[in-house]
Amino acid sequence: MSKDKFIGKFVNGVSDIEKRLSKAKAFIFDWDGVFNNGFKTGQSGSGFSEVDSMGTNLLRFSHFLKTKHLPLTAIISGEKNESAQFFATREHFNLSFYKIAHKIDALNYICDHKGIKPEEVVYFFDDVLDLSIAKVCGLRIMIGKQATTLFTEYCIKNDLVDYISSHHGGEHGVRESCEMLMTVNGNFDEVLKQRTDHTELYKDYIRQRNNADTLIYTKDGGGRIIPDQNSL
Q: In whole angstroms, how far apart are CA 132 and each of 52, 108, 168, 177?
């Protein structure tokens, strides 16, 4: 794959990203600033676009075609956001965490309970609260922002990012990054053709994907990660 196809920044080479992606078993996403521009009004949440939603679905199908297995998918957010939980449930993500200020706690929970190693995680992130995961996970995709030049330089200097999208959270940076990873997988055209034709293989993927129930977690007063009782 030629990185000339993309206007995002490859901090590490395509071959390195391909090697890291080949180990992936999980795609984990921050919410605010990743699926949206991060703006909020009072108690209202921040939403998502169908463009990014389709990107996550196509990426999961790309992984399914490559490995014959569904990837684990999760959202980890520092806030409670109804849009994030709606998205995770509608798209049959495996897990959705909220009110997790120290996000590495959620990753540790996933690794302990789902048999995933940190180096098998692809993490989509955008800001400081995400760095505890970026320090240890296998592949780090930053949704870029023009306003955070020094933060971006810090992440590059400290080996905390592998790819920086050219589009930010309000401009479908997730979709850009998903298409990049599908291209690295070497099956971008096949993914689109099978999705367009609604092939038996795609139907099998959707059946398996839609069999997943979304589990929602938060923290209790003692800092332990627990199921959200309202989601049971």
A: 24, 11, 21, 21
* Per-residue pLDDT at 232 exceeds 50: no
Residue 81's identity, in one-letter code, is: N
164 forms beta bridges with: 9, 142
Q: Which two tokens stand for residue 107?
A: 């990753």
Return the domain boundaries, the chain.
3-71+118-210
CATH 3.50.50.60 for domain 3-71+118-210, yes or no, is: no
pTM of the predicted structure, to 2 decimals: 0.95
CA distances from 224 to 129, 200, 202, 221 (A): 18, 43, 38, 7
**Rounded distance between C-alpha atoms, residue 87 and residue 75, angstroms:** 10
At 44 the pLDDT is 57
* Neighbouring C-beta atoms of residue 76, cutoff 10 Å: 27
